[in-house]
């Protein structure tokens, strides 16, 4: 049978206008930083410098928090829910109108394939604003008492893996509930948050309701430790989450943490293999594996391990790694040199500890940060690659014989964010899901997100829920 090569299908980047430098978005305006320090953000697929952004210092954080406080006291907390909703609906509509531009910008700054930013991230961003707009005038019916009140100023720190989507997860419920926010995007992916600042202006959101400050870990620390912040919301590594929990312990600040994961994707011998293989691939190679709920541990029933792995390898060989702006690309660039180094180090540890490493033949571009989709078999539960979050396109395969063994292995992790179960028996799905210590359990699917569905973890994966009615609770005093 003849085979056909894919022709390149690049998305044009001309729809995006990236400025050479950006200020901070405070009180409805872009302002220069007081710290005088800046940092550059690069395209991880080419290492090209995209723009210079401010490294906000303590005085900048202070200005942003003051603006948020003023807007909270004078405007936003007093506004009727129905009126707040109008702004959220307006933001959602503008995100939809500018979706193509936002998707291209996200792929350029983050390295994720355009297919993903276009079809998953940006539509979900709009969906979150639509969803929480709907709640803004119905808070008294949310099950948190007859007269739930906003908390005040929220300090929000987000990671680089889903930059605009994490912003939406944080800002939409906060605003719907009547809080104002200061948000810090990750240092490697500030551009869509800054584009969102423009959207706030376009929506004529009152000044100070949303403030965006750029910078690194020190900026994040100054924000979460600021005395006038009432509520902290953080998504990122368990290590930083732990430091934040410690730093605000004993203060009246409210805290939600969404941290790492090491999800088990459990495939039983009665699962439809082709569908399971698609689910496994989506579970770990979606977004280059930079996903806190990634199915990074495949637990496969021993009797079907061989055919399943054969089929998985055939499927992995078809993954197209390369230019994030090419619409045929499945796996884009690793977000930063530092993250690439971490993936390399953990993968080398996997080999050193005796697991078998396999990747399909794969030409990686010469410039930029790249890592071929990788599979480890012969993995034991003690191996680092079975215990630590790699946060890259690396799958560790373990086997089991009985459902009880599957559950025990799945739960043998300090994390508890997500899990997957593949079987044709509904009763087995329910029985296994009931025993899994994970905030989200997908059955015969993986990495499915919906704004109406709560998301969050147990154990070292953090606490609190984002999304759905549950997601409002973190932003309401009741
Ligand atoms: P971090 O947890 O360091 O980054 C998350 C966010 O927190 C970023 O905005 C970061 O700023 C900020 N930050 C860093 N230090 C502090 C601090 N002391 N106080 C307040 N905010 C802070 O993750 P990394 O990017 O360093 O990634 C390291 C590892 O974490 C990854 O390899 C991965 O395993 C895991 N990770 C997990 C994520 C998840 O969703 N579960 C998301 C991201 C990473 P800045 O980036 O500007 O320094």
Q: How would you describe the overall organization of this protein?
A:
The chain is of the alpha/beta class and 478 residues long. 38% of the residues lie in helices and 17% in strands. It has 15 helices and 20 strands. Helix 6 links the parallel strand 8 and strand 9 (210-212). The chain is globular, with a radius of gyration of 22 Å. Residues 157-161, 184, 186-187, 216-217, 220-221, 224, 235-237, 240, 243-244, 259-260, 292, 339, 342, 389, 391 line the site of NADPH dihydro-nicotinamide-adenine-dinucleotide phosphate.
Task: List the keywords.
478 residues, alpha/beta, seven-stranded mixed β-sheet, 20 strands, globular, binds NADPH dihydro-nicotinamide-adenine-dinucleotide phosphate
Fold topology:
Layout: E1 21-22, E2 24-26, E3 29-31, E4 38-42, E5 49-54, H1 58-76, H2 81-97, H3 99-110, H4 114-135, E6 149-150, E7 153-157, H5 163-176, E8 180-184, H6 191-202, E9 210-212, H7 217-225, E10 231-235, H8 238-248, E11 254-258, E12 264-267, H9 273-285, E13 297-301, H10 305-316, H11 337-352, E14 356-358, E15 374-377, H12 384-387, E16 394-400, H13 403-411, E17 418-422, H14 426-435, E18 440-443, E19 462-463, H15 470-473, E20 476-477
Parallel strand pairs: 1-5, 7-8, 7-10, 8-9, 10-11, 12-13, 12-17, 13-16, 15-16, 17-18
Antiparallel strand pairs: 2-3, 4-5, 6-20, 11-19, 14-15
Helix pairs in contact: 2-4, 3-4, 4-5, 9-10
Bound molecules: NADPH dihydro-nicotinamide-adenine-dinucleotide phosphate.
